[in-house]
Amino acid sequence: MKTLTVLLLVGFCANCFGYLIKVPTLPTKPRIAPLGWVHIQKLMLPLFENVCEESADPQIVKISNEFNFEATDYLKPDVIDKYQNLKSSRGLLAKGEIFTETNEDNFNEFRVIYELLYNAKDFDTFYRAACWARQNVNCGVFIDAIYLAIITRKDTERVSVPAPYELLPNYFVRKDFIIKASTIMAGKDIAPTEGIREDGNNFVLDTNYTREIYEGIEDSSLAYFHEDIGLNAYFFLTKLKNMPWVDTEFQRSVRYGEHIYHFIRQLMARYNLERYSNELYETDGINWDDMDVTQYDPMLIYSNGNEFSPRTENTMTNSDVITTLKNIENNLATTVSHMRDGGFNKPTILSHLMDIMVFNNNSYINLAMKVVGDTPVNSPPCALNHYMTKMRDPIFWKINKKMVDLINNALKVLPGYTKNQLYFPGVQVTNIDAKKMITSFEKFEFDVTDALKYGDKDRNFLIKISQSRLNHKPFAIKVNISSLVVQKGLVKLYLGPKVMPGEITEHKKLFMLIDSFEINLKRGSNIITRSSSEINNLSDDFAPLRTVHKNVIDTEFGVDALSLNLVKNQIGFPSRLILPKGSSDGLPFQLFVFVAPYVKATPGGTKSNIQLNYDAILSPGYPLDLDIEIQELFNLPNALVKDIIITHKIESKPNYSAGGGYNRERKWDTVDDMDYDIMSDDPLSLVARPEFTQKKDKFDYKSRKGQYGKKDTSFIGTQDTIRTVPDKSLDTKKDLEFNKIYSKSDENNDNVEYTVITKKDDNLDLNKVITKEKVINKGDEDEDISNIIISELDKTIQEIEKESDLKVEPVNLLESPRRRYPTIFNIILKPLPKEIESDERVYE
């Protein structure tokens, strides 16, 4: 009887109190590689050493010389015929030539070499073919082909992927720093400068971005984002693995087109969040009739010594291509309408749109790049001609913005999601908390010694590149979800700029999906804590090749064990960049949480109405990829929007290194229009080279704040980091003062004061305080996340009015009856015309 009583009591308590759910994630301890994987990893490493020169590794040289193509060694023997035809007709691209993915002949050769590697029937054949390609194929062709083969082959799925910026640092780092590093590597004397320092047995070059060259141009403040080595490496590898002709399950999926469109939307949303962080409007799409585009020089250099060609201002001469682009723009919506009327569903329609916009040889993106990325005859290519460097050029983002707008407008002819497709019966999101979201700039070093190796002589020192990169402290998001029954759900977390109430649907394309995960909901309240380290589809930095080599040797001698990590987990979006840069005083953003029924895709079979609703959930862009009414989505109980703050930490002391321009507080309105003088007698001087080192035009400077700060150490506890504050913690001593106006400089401005308007002052309880408790004090910035305290929800103004028969209004009523936008909204949302007026009261 006592046992039964205890069981009943436990069951009762479980129903009364919320469940604390730690969402299950992948094991924190990586798998240890068996000897077979250790051997594979050891064989692969020499393939990436000094990759643009012929390998001196004896094993690679021997295998390459003895290699012969045998049809029986390949899953598809016709790949050998394709190679032989290519070699006999056009020949292979010479090793010293420049490879670009936008050149049709170059691209076809890359595809042929990749198919030779991919279709090898076993690892032994693949490795021998890779050794042959390493010695006989153009450097750029080999790099693209070997990366894609490693990503798609099963027998290399746990190989450590080398960082692209270690193989070709000259595609990621400004050429003046590459020239300095090459000079040191060649053993030549170089005068000590501020940007070169010795660190033990290493030479470290503190590098900077192109911002200091293009100071004053609007997009120059985003150079740290455009030129981020992790972001550009991610885009390069994602473009490769998303090729439509790659034979994988992903490409064969009926939702392949939807996923590609979702990738483009996500990229643009993330970019516009960073613009918002830098007080810039949402970027405009490119306009072929009014090409007001600033010229851009990426300041990069090829391995053969040629410089990347700059993109000049508005030099479009191919009017036929522009006409074709306009025809695509004008007919895209009509195409969707015809397909809808023909009974095609959204996945099929989007797959066709992706063919038109991305995949075909004459796709919109290829034609657009041909117009803006065209260089003079016999001139080297520009940044837009390479997957590794496309994102550096601001015009890349304008073209992608145009594509997203065109597709969004075309999809408006499709019916939006119904309430039944958005509603999750019995589920309600009751609260969201996200604390200690702090960004900063940290120094990152990577090794370029092998890539810049000069001849066969090995140096007894290493050369490293140091850059300041955007990062964030660990953070946690807590979501409280109530469920009437036990069921499985899908949680989606979106991050967007702070927008005005009622305008989220209009600006939903600015919200980026930062996480999506399944959850087992218990009956009652479920408190879900999601830490930044658990977010799906993110990757940390690539393991340095020297570190991998050391781990292999240690494993062979039994000193240590080589960790295994799936390739797909190494090439995700950089985890550092999941948060946009905050501001020193806190920049407002919004978190949107949506919970849907968890659905697993099942091919075939007839579909009921419920299954048709579930089909919508399977869309990667659901629920923000189609037109929606605000009451259809944001008023649902299974959706909730919460304001949050992201703070950026800035160093107290300036960093005066060559790469330190991003590490100090800076007043933009005090910057002079200066020339960048470089001593002409310096052997590394750029005076005689490009003219972009001197500014010729004057620019108007906006008043902005500088940004960057050093990284602080912060940890997230494994336990639940959010707990309830007892009522006694509330401030009950501060009396209400009538009609008092508080300025922003007041000491206690974290609390919101109100004017109380009432005709029943005699009945007013003067001891009652109308205030909002501060969540985080300024002195708590460095507090460990595990110590964060989250208060209970305060009463709303409406509840206060109802209880006390009061009318509560903010004291600062603006005089103008026109609709006014707070300053923070003008950053991302362009104000409406002055003719649009409103009679509603507007408060500060």
Key phrases:
844 residues; alpha+beta; di-copper center containing domain from catechol oxidase; Immunoglobulin-like; 23 helices; globular; disordered N terminus
What is the CATH T-level topology of the domain at 419-447 and 463-537 and 576-648?
Answer: Immunoglobulin-like
Number-wise, the strands total 18
Helix content: 25-40%
* Mean pLDDT, all residues: 77
Q: State the CATH class of the domain at 419-447 and 463-537 and 576-648.
A: Mainly Beta
* CATH superfamily placement of the domain at 419-447 and 463-537 and 576-648: Hemocyanin, C-terminal domain
* Widest β-sheet, arrangement of strands: 3-4-7-6-16-15-9-10
Count of discrete alpha- or pi-helical segments spanning 4 or more residues: 23
CATH architecture field of the domain at 419-447 and 463-537 and 576-648:
Sandwich
The secondary structure category is alpha+beta
In angstroms, what separates the terminal alpha carbons? Answer: 64 Å
General shape: globular
Can you describe this structure in just a few lines?
With 844 residues, the protein is α+β, with helices and mostly antiparallel strands. Strand 3 and strand 4 form a beta hairpin. The protein is globular.
Please write out the topology.
Elements: H1 2-16, E1 19-22, E2 31-32, H2 35-44, H3 58-66, H4 78-89, H5 104-118, H6 123-136, H7 139-152, H8 164-167, H9 175-185, E3 196-199, E4 202-206, H10 223-226, H11 229-241, H12 249-252, H13 256-277, H14 319-341, H15 346-359, H16 364-372, H17 394-411, H18 419-422, E5 427-435, E6 438-447, E7 462-472, E8 476-483, E9 487-497, E10 512-521, E11 524-531, E12 538-539, H19 545-556, E13 563-564, E14 573-574, E15 587-597, H20 609-617, H21 630-633, E16 639-648, E17 755-757, H22 797-804, E18 807-809, H23 823-826
Parallel strand pairs: 1-11, 4-7, 6-16, 12-14
Antiparallel strand pairs: 2-13, 3-4, 5-8, 6-7, 8-11, 9-10, 9-15, 15-16, 17-18
Helix pairs in contact: 2-19, 3-6, 4-5, 5-6, 5-7, 13-15, 13-17, 14-15, 14-16, 14-17, 16-17
